[in-house]
Design a protein that fits this description.
Elements lengths: L19 E6 L3 H12 L4 E5 L14 E2 L11 H17 L4 E9 L7 H13 L10 E4 L15 E10 L1 H14 L3 E4 L1 E9 L2 E8 L5 E11 L5 H8 L8 E12 L7 E5 L5 E7 L3 E5 L3 E2 L16 H12 L11 E12 L13 E5 L7 E6 L5 H16 L22 H10 L1
Parallel strand pairs: 1-2, 1-10, 2-7, 4-12, 10-18
Antiparallel strand pairs: 3-6, 4-6, 5-6, 8-9, 9-10, 11-14, 11-15, 11-16, 12-13, 13-14, 17-18
Helix pairs in contact: 1-4, 1-7
Length: 429
């Protein structure tokens, strides 16, 4: 049910005599977005992913391109504004994998007051330059179709706009475009050694399928390894006991379709968190997400082994059952997925309070640069890439100008609002 990642082929090579400008470690959305942006500006780029593209955090998301309504409560106005501005940029760049979605927010009388919800949604409507997406509206839950699956005590609600996305395909399309523009994309290739040699980095790579050892040299290295970012520094780069990220587990459940309409729900919970209930794969509903420190923050645990716990399943079932007239039980769950988010460790007391903003930080000051990425969210990957390119330009010199804001991803060269017409056109052909 979850979209499968795919390999973007590159010419086989065991050694590169000419130093690369940039070597990117990690084939998630941030790594692939940076590789695409950089090669499009004229830099020589190679990227290595130890598994397959989008196989880590990028495929464990809630499948949303959104501003992050709840981040307003944590005063992350810059992050929300940047995310809101990116919604329509990304929608225009990839209308074949990004869809506008209306979200129903029922008013729960025992939680946030209606005026506060409306104020937050007013900010949400106006903070990010919304042009194509429709604004917030008040919904009478007693007459609107969205109220039918819910308990009758929810009589008032609000409806606002965000977008859904095929997250893994977003990663793959960035990698495909990067490769088409000349970047080398190496999948199932692990960086085993990262060593400074004068003004260059020397990298040893291992093909995890064949055991073949490859080598590359580069003027600058970007560490976009997601949950493994500290491990790259600890093992490959020899930086002992580096601790920059807070590993937070987020889990989702999938149940049979809970409602017939095509809108989504966002539910408030008494613990201050929210969950989504989203139409998924035609006849299913996706419910999530949780927020808990991964294995108590045990950094020796492998993030790829994250599994949903019975406690998380119960939490999501109970939270959704507070709203839906028909209770959801663990027996209703047909599938689950769980993943680890590499949030920047800002010292927040609760996992859900840790910042979702990204931090770009250079490791040491001497010799060739190594720039690490901590945190981030799929909605802001393009802006993160732009911020990274500013740091790269300061180190390597400027080549081409920024270009991705108006550049379609492969297959997305039609109007953002023209998806239905385009599908109909293809069906006629």
């Amino acid at each position: 049910m979850q979209p499968q990642s795919a390999t973007v082929p590159s010419p086989p090579s065991t050694h590169s005599e000419t130093p690369l400008d940039i070597f990117v470690i990690g084939g998630g959305i941030n790594g692939c977005g940076i590789a695409r942006d950089a090669v499009g500006r004229g830099y020589s780029v190679s990227l290595a992913e130890m598994n397959d593209l989008g196989s880590g955090t990028s495929s464990w998301s809630t499948k949303l391109i959104h501003g992050g309504l709840r981040y307003l409560e944590h005063y992350e106005f810059r992050l929300v504004r940047e995310s809101l501005m990116e919604r329509e940029v990304l929608w225009k760049n990839a209308p074949h994998i990004i869809r506008p979605m209306r979200f129903i927010l029922p008013h729960h009388k025992g939680l946030r007051p209606a005026w506060l919800l409306r104020l937050g949604l007013f900010l949400y409507d106006n903070l990010g330059g919304r042009k194509l997406l429709p604004p917030t509206a008040t919904v009478n839950m007693t007459t609107d179709e969205a109220g039918k699956p819910l308990k009758p005590l929810f009589t008032k609600g609000f409806e606002y706009s965000d977008c859904t996305v095929d997250d893994v395909r977003m990663v793959i399309l960035n990698a495909r475009d990067a490769a088409d523009r000349g970047a080398e994309i190496l999948t199932r290739t692990q960086v085993t050694e990262l060593r400074r040699d004068g003004d260059l980095w020397r990298l040893a790579l291992r093909d995890t399928r064949t055991g073949e050892i490859l080598s590359r040299t580069a003027r600058l290295v970007v560490n976009a390894a997601g949950p493994w970012v500290d491990r790259v520094l600890n093992s490959a780069a020899g930086k002992n006991d580096v601790r920059n990220v807070r590993l937070v587990q987020g889990s989702h459940i999938v149940v049979k379709r809970l409602f017939e309409h095509d809108r989504s729900y966002i539910f408030q919970n008494s613990d201050g968190r929210i969950i989504f209930a989203i139409p998924y794969e035609e006849d299913l509903t996706l419910v999530g997400t949780t927020d808990k420190d991964y294995e108590g923050g045990d950094r020796s645990a492998d993030p790829s082994k994250a599994k949903i716990t019975d406690e998380e399943i119960s939490y999501l079932c109970n939270a959704a059952s507070e709203y839906f007239a028909k209770p959801i039980t663990p027996e209703d769950v047909v599938w689950t997925y769980s993943g680890v988010r590499p949030l920047f460790d800002d010292g927040a007391s609760k996992a859900q309070e840790a910042t979702r903003d990204y931090v770009l930080r250079e490791q040491d000051a001497d010799g060739p640069p190594l720039i690490n990425i901590f945190g981030g969210k799929i909605t802001t990957f393009r802006r993160l890439a732009g911020a990274m390119l500013e740091k790269i330009e300061a180190k390597l010199g400027r080549k081409g100008a920024a270009w991705t804001a108006t550049a379609s991803l492969p297959g997305g060269d039609f109007p953002a609002t023209g998806h239905k017409d385009y599908v109909a056109h293809l069906a006629d052909d």
